[in-house]
Amino acid sequence: MRSFDRWELEARQALADRGIGYGEATPLIEDARAHHDESGQDPWESLGAPLDFAAEVAADQPAEQARRDTQGRTVGDHLREGLFALALLGVPVAVVGGLSVGGLSIPVTVAGLTGSVLAGLAAVCTQVPGALRAAGHPRAAPWGFALFGVLVVAAGGAFTQLPKTRVGELPILGLLAVSAGAMWLLTREKRAPRRDLSDARAGGPGSASAGGPEGASADGPEGARAGGPEGAGAGDPADAGAWFGRLRDVLVGRFDVAPARAAEMVAEARSHVAVAGSHPRDEFPSLAGYARDLAEAEPAKQGPWWRGDTAEMVMGLLITVWVVIAVVDAVVDEQWWLVAAGVAYLLASGRSTWRRIREWAARSRPA
């Protein structure tokens, strides 16, 4: 019999892919474990496949899922990741600065302050392209990369060209406290309400086995008319032309539908609305929900390699190896501030990298 731990690992990954984080998933996993312990069966038999379990959970949140892109993230999720990177930068800055000056405060100069602000904005900007796509603005996403490049160049210029005039001091303990507090706030997750697994497995209302929420079928425009709960499309464009343009952008940006295929879907929706002689908002109460239904009805496709889990894992391993080599060189050269910075990074990233390796290995094994 396969272990529950393996089922849990795959279920958490499937839930994370749908934007349901660790804290929010924990009560669901606890209920699943209790149900599994009572049944004494293989978890795949008593609970179903992890992907189906995640689909059932997501089916209970149609409006929330419609806001998420194919990576399970909302606009806010992308921006929070950028802010977390900014907060995380405060830790090595405080450690390295303290070791360099041998005190509890870091001198603040015009060059250092300006360069640090620009570098921080660049860190946040790394998530802007993803946020723009999730917001349904794929055409603007490349400008996010351009803005990142401009900020990096500007930060380098500020550090090297601006005057080193001292304007004050920054308490190291204060910087660490702000960074730690910001990271804690940004990683807090809401807890999902508990679910009755016996009803869900029996195909009760709202379960994936029962076909999902009423109206969630996406077999063409008619099948996706429900598109979400009442009022979910309150912010959709009032103009019909703008509505269809927004639909195309959401399909391409948020749900990674090929532009040509998105144009075909929009044309089908236009035809349906024309035949009905009504307004798209009357036919499809939620634009985002309708777009999600259409995208989910499409055959599964492999996304760009550079956005896949394997590429992310390989990049993380390469960076980790590079940091380890740099730390070893720093020990040989007795550059202890660099050693401290490298160790701090390894401690911060090691757990995350190891979790990704385990998740990747679990998905690679046959069920």
Automatic annotation (TrEMBL):
UniProt biased composition (Gly residues): 225-234
**Residue numbers spanned by region Disordered:** 194-237
Coiled-coil region(s): none
Keyword check for Metal-binding? no
List the biased-composition ranges (Low complexity). 207-224
Q: Output the superkingdom of the source species.
A: Bacteria
Keywords in alphabetical order = Membrane, Transmembrane, Transmembrane helix
Q: Where is the signal peptide?
A: none
Q: Where are the transmembrane segments?
A: 83-102, 108-128, 140-158, 170-187, 311-330, 336-354
Q: What is this protein called?
A: Uncharacterized protein
Q: Which organism is it from?
A: Actinoplanes lutulentus
